[in-house]
Amino acid sequence: NAGVTQTPKFRVLKTGQSMTLLCAQDMNHEYMYWYRQDPGMGLRLIHYSVGEGTTAKGEVPDGYNVSRLKKQNFLLGLESAAPSQTSVYFCASAVSYNSPLHFGNGTRLTVT
Amino acid sequence: AQSVSQHNHHVILSEAASLELGCNYSYGGTVNLFWYVQYPGQHLQLLLKYFSGDPLVKGIKGFEAEFIKSKFSFNLRKPSVQWSDTAEYFCAAGATLNYGGSQGNLIFGKGTKLSVKP
What we know:
The complex is a heterodimer. By secondary structure, chain A is an all-beta fold. Chain A has strands at 4-7, 10-13, 19-25, 31-38, 42-49, 56-57, 64-67, 73-78, 87-94, 102-103, 107-111.
């Protein structure tokens, strides 16, 4: 019962470095999402995908890129990390657009 | 603009007290509504959801929520809280119509932290 798996769990980056966060789901869900969670801000949607090969921008997409080459994987890339991207990142998946989300355990990213 | 508002930032209760957390939404068209809970150090989990039908929905762990269309509200309630209910609670809304995938996402409120004193 893996569900939604995020790697890595923690990461520290220096300003300007790049990295990729991996999200994998084994539930054959069509929809996948990347959120960031910041204190007092709730969850804000970065990018999402409604199926393999598709991606769309969410509320706060700047500074991030995503890819959905395989249905089960949704990658989030930071091209040039900035301190403002220090956050906890959650991946989620869902069967369809109005279905409950299944969340991963999160990735805590610190950019110094 | 679509939005979800949770008016209480932090609620502190003693065990056995009753709980009501407010949630109001602004969303064009009909909506699906959700409450998620995040226990300390964990990811979000679904507490309950409303799609249609009986406006009073029951979820896990004794929680319930009432959809009041005229007030655009979906408040979360529990008659008697326990220390283990200490968590952050998020209300979320999503469109029932899929405009070609352009609205394939939920909008979350900013969350309400609940602290229950033993």
